[in-house]
Structures are given as structure tokens and as C-alpha cells.
Amino acid sequence: YRVFARKGTGFYYMNIKPLQIGEKTAALPLIQGGMGVGVSLSGLAGAVAREGGIGVISTAQIGFREPDFPDNSKEANLRAMVSELKQAKKIAAKADGSCDGLIGYNIMTATRDYPDYVKAAAKAGADVIISGAGLPVDMPEYVKGTDTKIAPIASSEKAARIILKMWDRHYKRTADFLIIEGPHAGGHLGFSNEELSHIGEKGFDFSYDLEIQKIIACVRGYEKKFQTSIPVILAGGIMNAPQVRHAFSLGADGVQVATPFVTTEECDASEAFKQAYVNARAEDIEIIKSPVGMPARAIRNAFLEKMRLGRENITKCYRCLEKCNPKEAPYCITQALIRSVQGDVENGLIFCGDNVQYLDRISTVSQVIRGLFA
Known about the structure:
By secondary structure, this protein is of the alpha/beta class. Helix content is 36%, strand content 14%.
């Protein structure tokens, strides 16, 4: 075990192992969750990697600030992927050019033209690619010939088994690591509304802990078959050291954390977006149905109240998600997310995790990591 200490701060990290993914190593067993549109770009991802974690850039409409985005959204996104990764690496690098962490992308499986985004990410030199919001059964095909490590996100033992079985059968390989995303996570969720309606009931979290252990057991079976290590990362609602220790006690090799990084100076979102998190109370968090039909967790605001009364006129499709139909969608999720991340928080969509009510100030990436591991 490595013990991390920082001079002059008066704290020591708990005894933890670095996160080893194949031949790639992150000093801390920490992944910063990908958040789009525009919440986790080079600024946040680079800062997390500089501290020794795995910084993750969200590719969801990543090129929204490019001048040609309205007319050439895909080309703008692919171009921005490259520039954001380069900038993140600059931020993460120490004086001697080395880096204690890793940098990669989160690419939703539901993304339109998903294969092109994964191929572009690998070509750009991503250390890792993480995919959820669907089953990324063909992801291995798109990273052939590269050293980019890939991980699916699964919320159930059934989903994990399907993905690993398909990768084994069709590609004769397994995951480099796997992320278990629980029901307390933010954004799109891998659970039904019925399942989510029981959050808070006695025994709910204990029951899901058992599911986590089933997923880990499934992964360990593939570890044995392929004679390799497959780190399992636990995500969803994690924001402090006791929760991190609990994740380790269940058998996880690391944790993925997203929401607490939003209220940091390094986060790429606008100050108004960050302040919406700071101001959020428990009663402001709700499960919504996104335009693609999936349950998602968001902060209640004027926009969501308005959408309860009717739909927003969609005048342009940015071709972001495969299953989104502009003729049926209640609003354009691309426009709603862009408005909020740029500061129009009353007229935009604000995804969040269900721990957002505990964030009461703007901090730094370093301070968040202290809270997780100190």
C-alpha cells in the first residue's frame, strides 16, 4: 500500500492502492465522472489528473462553443475532443512533464455516430474511454490497435454479465475496468422509475450493496478466465471518506465521483451553474424523464416547471442522441443543457447527483479529494 502525504497540510491520505489499469497507473483510485454538456472539460479533468486521479472529459456536445457548432455539430465535437484533451494534458503535467494521473473521455453509448466518437477518442490518445447510457457491446471493435483502455458502466449484474459475455464471445477480450453506477448518481440513470421510487426506504441501500457484490463476483470470474486484473469502480452518491471506505469494504478497487467536483474552482461550468448546486436543497432534487425516455436526476427549476405544462418548440436538431425524435421530444436536451452550463440556470436543464444538497460552498479539486481520502 502507498501512503500519500502532503507537506504543510496536516493531513494524510488513508492507506490506498494506486489504480492499475493494464500498464497504465493513476496514483489515486479515483475517477472523476464525466458530466455534459460542458461541465467536465479540460479544466476539471486536467486538475483531477494533476492530483493523481483519472480526469474524464465528457464528449456530450463537447463542441458547443465552436463557431460552426449549429450547422456542423459532429465535426465541431470531434475537433473539440482533440483540443480539450491536449489542454487537459497541459494542465495535468508537472514541471518535468510527468503526470500522476490519467485522462480520458466519457462517451455515451446512446450518442449518435457513437463508433466515430470512440475511434476519434482513441486516435487522440485517450488513456481511457468510459461508456454508459446503454450497453457498449461493440466498443472493443472501435479501439483495436490502440493502447486506450475501455470500461463499460453497469448498474446491475445482468447488464455487466451481458456486456462481458458479448466482449468475450465476439472479441475474445474483456473489460480493462468496469464502473458500477448506483441509483444515487446524477444525469441519466440505469434504473427504472419503479426501482428509483424505493430510494430512501429501509433496506434499499443494503439491497443494492448485495447487487454490487454480485457484479464484482461476475467480474472476478472474467478476471480468472482471462488471467488479468479488472478493477471495479463504484459510483453514485459518493462524496466523503466513510463512503469511500464502504466502497472498498464491498470489494471495489476505486470510486468514481462527479457531483462534488462541480462546485470547484476548476470545474468548466459557469459560476451560476455552480451556485445552483450550492443553493440546491433536498426537496429540489427530482427524477425526470429525459427527452430520450430515460429516467434522470436533476435540480427542479423554472424550466422543469414549464415543461410540465407543455413542450418547447424545437426548431433545430443537433443530432446528439440516437433515440431522440425532435417531433416527439418535449424539448431539445442539447439546448437545455447548454443554456444551464452557460449560466441561464432558470431556463436550462441541470443534472445532478442526489448528494447535491450537501454542497454548500465553492471549493477546489484538491479539497474534494482530501474529503474523499483524508
